[in-house]
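Notebook B, p. 112. Complex prediction, attempt 2.
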Amino acid sequence: EAQVTQNPRYLITVTGKKLTVTCSQNMNHEYMSWYRQDPGLGLRQIYYSMNVEVTDKGDVPEGYKVSRKEKRNFPLILESPSPNQTSLYFCASRPGLVNEQFFGPGTRLTVL
Amino acid sequence: QQQVKQSPQSLIVQKGGIPIINCAYENTAFDYFPWYQQFPGKGPALLIAIRPDVSEKKEGRFTISFNKSAKQFSLHIMDSQPGDSATYFCAASTQSNYQLIWGAGTKLIIKP
C-alpha cells in the first residue's frame, strides 16, 4: 500500500530533551516536507526537501532540524524542545513536479 | 501577498444543507487551487482541485467555484451528510515551484 508513515504517533516529553520524529514514504517521491498544525493557524511548513541531500527552510523552521540521507526517509529533529513546539506534526510527500501532496497520519507532540 | 485567507473558521450545517467555504488570495501568479479534507486523527487528503482556466469544477457532491477577477474560490458541498464532518483546507500554488500556500482551515460539522 502506498503510504507515508510517521513515528511515533503520540509523544509527551519534557523541555530540552532531544527527540526525533521519523517519516518514511514508499512511493519513491522526490519531494518531502514537514508541517505543524495549530488551531486557527492551519498548516505551516517547517522544512522541505526537493531530493536527497537537498533541504530548505519553510515558514517556521526555528527550533527544528531535518536531514534527507535517503529518498524514502525525512526525519524531523527537535534538539531542545520547548513548550511552544507542542503541536500536531505532519509529514507529506509528492512526486517532483506534481501538485498533490500525500500526508502521513500525524504525530501529536506535547512538550512539558 | 503569499497569503490565502479562508473563512469561516467553523461551520455547522444541518444534514442536506449546502455548506460553503470561501478562500481569497492576492498573488495573481497562483494557478492551482486545491481543497484538502482532514478527518480527526488523519492527515489531510486531496478532495478536489481547480485551475484558473475554468470557473467551476464538480466531483460528486463537491463543487469548486472560481472567480479569477475577484481572486476568490469556494467549496460547496451539495446534500451534505454527517460523514462530511471534517476540517477543510484551501490552498494555492504556482507551476514554478509547486509549493502550497495554505488557508487556516474550516471545521465543518454536519448535524444529523
